Amino acid sequence: MFYREAGDFSTTYQQDSQTFPIKFDRYRYYIVLAVAFLVIPFVINDYWANAVFVPFLIYAIAAIGLNILTGYCGQVSLGTGAFMAVGAYAVYKLMTAFPEVSMLIHVPIAGLITAGVVTLFGLPSLRIKGFYLAVATLAAQFFLVWLFNKVPWFYNYSASGQISAPERSVFGIIVTGPNTEAWAKYMICLIFVTLAAVIARNLTRGSVGRKWMAIRDMDIAAEIIGVNPMMSKLTAFAVSGFFVGIAGALFFSVYLGAAEVGESFGIDKSFLVLFMVIIGGLGSIFGSFAGAAFLVLLPVFLKNVLVGMLGWPTDLAAHLQLVIVGGLIIMFLIVEPHGLAQLWRLAKEKLRLWPFPH
Amino acid sequence: MKLTTMTLTTMTLAAIMAASPVLADLVFPSLSYRTGPYAANGIPFADGYEDYFTLLNERDGGIGGIPARVLECETGYNTEKGVECYEATKGEGALVYQPLSTGITYQLIPKVTADGIPMHTMGYGRTSAKNGEVFSNVFNYPANYWDGASHAINHIMSLGDISGKKIALVYHNSAYGKEPIRTLEELSKKHGFELMLVPVDHPGQEQKSQWLQIRQQRPDNVIMYGWGVMNQVAIQEAANIRYPMENFIGIWWSGSENDVLPAGDRANGYKALTFHNLGRDYPLYDDLQQYVVDAGKAAGAGDQLGTALYNRGMYAAMLAAEAAKTAQEIHGTADITPAMMRDGMEALEMTEAKMEALGLPNFGPEFKVSCENHGGNGLGAVAQWDAAAGKWNLITGYEGSDQDVILPLIEEDSAAFAAEAGITPGCS
């Protein structure tokens, strides 16, 4: 009914190993891309950009980054918030030092700087695993926040320690600062999220990704069959840091416009991104999107329903929203410990056989 | 696919909300926080803000005959939610934003300026917004953080010679807490006291090491810039090391009942600054009781009347309503736009006669806003906590701050912002 695979044959290896081997899936993916690039920018307004799409896309990039590290390579990290801060402060310093350079160059450079810093903090992973590594990255979280709060050079000696994004552009179109059009904000995030997802997808299904997964599943066996654990772990940290840095840079410059390290990049940010990855599905690119959507859009949606439609008091709605989101997290993890991505995979399997039961 | 269905549902919802008819009313969004780590302070302020507008609607039928509508949106003191609230409410004809959070203020300054909506950050936010030539849409009358720092120093000087003394600043390690540092450094050069900086990280539950440091260094006075749970912990810790409370001065955000009550009698004598009066002995309170509380229309639990922060929220609402009246007079229309509201705020003049007529005699300082000066006259008073009676008493009148030190700093900081944001300062 939904998944008609009749007549959908692969005649080459490339066809057989593509990301969406089923025609229906492939076309749906093209339609989503077409809508995202060709329809939404023309209908989006400030509210939809700032409250829904931009945070969702940025968190999706951060979740992809953490998913590479934790989901594909099995290295638990609790320092995502601070790593995003590295990206944010890097892009801030670049924006203020080189005002005429395009944001399309600044953001990836901020990602590269973050990749370097994250790799540095990834070094302990060569000796320690699991909980111990989580604590080491936790130390990174607190150290980096302290550093950005302590050293005035990072915030250009401003009186309050806040950093504010000046107005910068891409090909003459303003993408940061208060005068940014909603569609421009949305488009720059969409371009980065698309690139991040494509790069991540292709890395994870190549030899690099297989090495990561081998390390994740059993590092000793991986080493015996010739995977170099040092290189694998450090590349995972670097690639993950690159994406998280890009997310942090966009988060500060395009989305918030002003940030304070303790408030915007605290430990709760690390947990939020980690929950996105866990709920979405460890080791899945789609899962990163699903997790980000779940934790970014659901609270906004609930708020609109409870306060906007039912007219409940705001505090009650806020408490209830926590209860509902928390309850759903617990329910999802009980129903499917492998996250939303696995639920989707199972649904797909069922649909392919439909109407015949298994 | 989960994502698309959810987006679709949200889309339809938004369509429904956008399609609801626009009624003629004056919208005053309240970006409040009744949840989260700062809720204890957010609740009384939000209640006072809302109750005052409720009173105007019930008693006078609104402002200039048009009902006021308070649009509440929960931020939880979180900057991301603050942005979401701003975007969700600005389309409803919001007249003025009062986020009650310095972090959210910093994010909204460029946004409100671009959207042409005024913002009032009463006693918080970005101090250099006092310079209206640069910050056209941001107001921080009647007093700001730097005035507060100067008030505290003036108060210490009024009690004895300050030169050679050691003064500690215990501050919330965020944009808010860092604000007064520059001013205090300048003042310490001018008056010859030694400044000692003691940061406290959010949320401020844990301050053992900071107070150990104070115990060892023995500063003559402690000035505190705290918010939320940090205040009560600091006051308790100060009591634990038997620090003399009369030498401990908090900014107005460290001067609510929530901050002193947990320490009980040991908080007796603690001082806090304020830019409005305290208590509930005002004719307006009888009206509040009659039209709002007894009518069952009080915001929240209705148990905050007369607390310091409730009074502050009410004062904020009163200033907003007066600015709206001023705007109605200037433009000769009752149904004002955010741009007209901005003009009203810029032309606002608070006199004793005006406050008397409102049923709030002697409630706040007299001040006059102009395009060059969005910050009023910077007057403030010192209140002292009487633990036995359980109330704050003003122990000084409204006094000025050291403008010779503050104005150059404001010039410098606003000029830096103007250069950064490409604003040409000037009054239209």
UniProtKB/TrEMBL annotation, chain A:
The chain crosses the membrane at residues 27-44, 50-69, 76-95, 101-123, 130-148, 183-200, 237-259, 271-296, 316-335. It is found in: Cell membrane. InterPro entries: ABC_transp_permease, LivM-like. It is a multi-pass membrane protein. One of its GO terms (molecular function) is branched-chain amino acid transmembrane transporter activity. It holds the Pfam family BPD_transp_2. GO terms for cellular component: plasma membrane. Keywords: Cell membrane, Membrane, Transmembrane, Transmembrane helix. This is Amino acid/amide ABC transporter membrane protein 2 (HAAT family).
Automatic annotation (TrEMBL), chain B:
InterPro entries: Leu-bd, Peripla_BP_I. SUPFAM superfamilies: Periplasmic binding protein-like I. Pfam families: Peripla_BP_6. The keyword Glycosyltransferase does not apply. Gene3D superfamilies: 3.40.50.2300. Residues 31-387 form the Leucine-binding protein domain. Residues 1-24 form the signal peptide. Keywords: Signal. The keyword Signal applies. Belongs to the leucine-binding protein family. This is Amino acid/amide ABC transporter substrate-binding protein (HAAT family). It comes from Litoreibacter ponti.
